[in-house]
Amino acid sequence: MVRAAVLPAVSAPLEITGIELPEPGPGQVRVALAAAGVCHSDLSLTNGTMRVPVPAVLGHEGAGTVVAVGEGVGHVAPGDGVVLNWAPSCGSCHACALGEVWLCANALNGGGAVHARRADDGSELHPGLNVAAFAEETVVPAGCVLPVPDGIPLTDAALLGCAVLTGYGAVHHSAKLREGETVAVFGAGGVGLAALQAARIAGASRIVAVDVSPQKEELARRAGATDYVVASENTAREIRALTGRQGVDAAIECVGRAATIRTAWESTRRGGRTTVVGIGGKDQQVTFNALELFHWGRTLSGCVYGNSDPARDLPVLAGHVREGRLDLSALVTERITLDGIPAAFDNMIAGKGGRALVVF
Q1: CA 219 → CA 52, 182, 213, 223, 356, distances in Å?
Q2: What whole-number distance in Å separates Cα of residue 252 and Cα of residue 281?
Q3: Does the pLDDT value for residue 139 go beyond 90?
Q4: pLDDT class for 264, splitting at 50, 70, 90?
Q5: Is the distance from CB of 189 to CB of 354 less than 8 angstroms?
Q6: Angle CA 44–48–51, to nearest 5
Q7: CA-based nearest residue to 265, from 150, 320, 184
Q8: Distance CA 23, CA 117 (A)
Q9: Angle, to 10 degrees, between the axis of helix 258-266 and the axis of helix 235-242?
Q10: Collapsed DSSP state (helix, strand, coil) of residue 33
Q11: Residues whose CB is less than 8 angstroms from the CB of residue 166 and which lie 6 or more positions away in sequence, other chains included
Q12: CA 21, 27, 29 angle in degrees (round to 5)?
C-alpha cells in the first residue's frame, strides 16, 4: 500500500488515502516519486474545467526512481531516475506524423484505465493525466517516463515535467522570442516564472511580469523580469508606456481568463505575437472585432505543453540548468507533503506564491 491524493468526484475535496498498486505489466514502469509539483492544471481537474474519469489519483508533474519494469521495457531500468511525461505521443496519429507531438490525439487515452484500487474499499481509481504523480509510487506506461538528464537532482527534475517545458516552450517554440525583443508574461505562477527565465535566456531586452499580487514582484524579478506591473484595468496602457507606446513584441498569457487574454492581446504591438498558455473554462469568451484583427495584424495562438517534445527538449533544458542559466529552485515557493496539497490549491486560488513542490 502507498499513500496518494485521490479526487473522489468533480468538485469534491481531495482525500489523502492508501491505494493498492498492481505490479508493472508488459510495457509498464513502477516509479517511487521523489517530488511532484502542484500545478494549476490539477486544480482545473478538481473543479471540472478539464475533464478526466473519476475517482482519480491526481498529479502530473513529477520525477522519481524506477522500482521495477515490466516485460519489453528497455530504455529504463530499476534504479534509474526518471521524469514523468504526462502527455506521451503515440507516434502514429496525424499530429505526430506532422512532428507536432504536443498535439497527439491519443496522448491522454490512458486516463480511462484502471490505475489502482483504494485500500479501504477496493474501488477502482483512474490515473489523472496518465501518471498519477500525487502518490508515493505510481505505475505508468513506459512512454510516460524519460531518463533524468545528468546533473539534475530528482526533486528539481520534477519541475521539468510540466512547468518548465510549458513556460520555456511558450517562449521559444510558440512565441519564438528573438534576442532584443520585448515580452510581457501574464501570471507569475510556476509556468509564468519559467517563461520569465526563458525570456531572459532568449536575450529579451525588456521583460514585463504582470500579476494580480504585488507580493510576487521579488519572485518575478529574480526570474528575470525587468519590470513588474500589478494587474488592473490600465495594464495594457502601462505596458505600452514601457515600450515606447508600441506594445511588446510578444505576450505570454499564463492565466486562462478571458479578461487576461484580451489584455495580453492589447499589450502586444502591431504585428506582434500573443500566446495563450493558460487553460480557461468554456464560459471564458474572448471577443474581437473584424476591423481590429485587420488593423493590428497580430498573431493570436494557443500553446499546448509549450509546443514541446519532451524527448528533444529535456536535454536542452538540462544544459541551461547545468550552465546556470535556468534556476529550477527559483520556481518553488514552498515544499510540502501530500497532506499539504489542499492548502496549496487554496493558495493558487488566492494567487499566492509560485510552485508548491510535494517532496516524498
Answers
A1: 32, 19, 11, 6, 14
A2: 18
A3: yes
A4: very high
A5: yes
A6: 90
A7: 184
A8: 13
A9: 30
A10: strand
A11: 191, 194, 277, 303, 305, 306, 308
A12: 45
Q: Which residues of 314-347 are buried (b: 16+ CB within 10 A; e: fewer)?
A: beebbebbeeeebbbebbbbeeeebebbeebbeb
Q: 124-127 and 116-118: which strand pairing?
A: antiparallel
Query: In the block, which residue shows the cell 488592473?
Result: 232
Q: Which pLDDT value is given to residue 48?
A: 86
User: Residue 204: what pLDDT?
Assistant: 98
Grid coordinates standing for 266? 492589447
Cα distance between residue 191 and residue 358, in whole Å: 17
Stated pTM of the model: 0.96
Question: Chain-wide mean pLDDT for the chain?
Answer: 96
pLDDT (mean) for 165-187: 98
Of the candidates 44, 331, 330, the residue with the CA atom closest to the CA atom of residue 191: 331
Quick one: angle between helices 341-349 and 40-47, nearest 10? 90
What are 258's three cell numbers?
478571458
Query: Residue 252 — pLDDT band, cuts 50, 70, 90?
Result: very high
Cell of 18: 492508501
**Residue 92 grid cell:** 502514429
pLDDT tens track for 12-60 = 999 999 999 999 999 999 999 999 999 989 988 888 888 889 999 999 9
Report the distance separating Cα 165 and Cα 173, nearest Å. Answer: 10
Cell 506564491 belongs to residue:
353
Q: Positive or negative CA dihedral for 321, 324, 326, 328?
A: positive
pLDDT at 250 over 90: yes
Provide the 10 A C-beta neighbour count for residue 295. Answer: 10
For residue 300, list its beta bridge partners.
Answer: 274
HSE-up of residue 170 (Cα within 13 Å, Cβ side): 33
Q: Which residue has the cell 517532496?
A: 359
**pLDDT at residue 2, rounded to an integer:** 97
Task: Give the bridge partners for 139, in sequence order.
Answer: 30
Nearest 5°: CA angle at 179, between 174 and 183?
Answer: 55
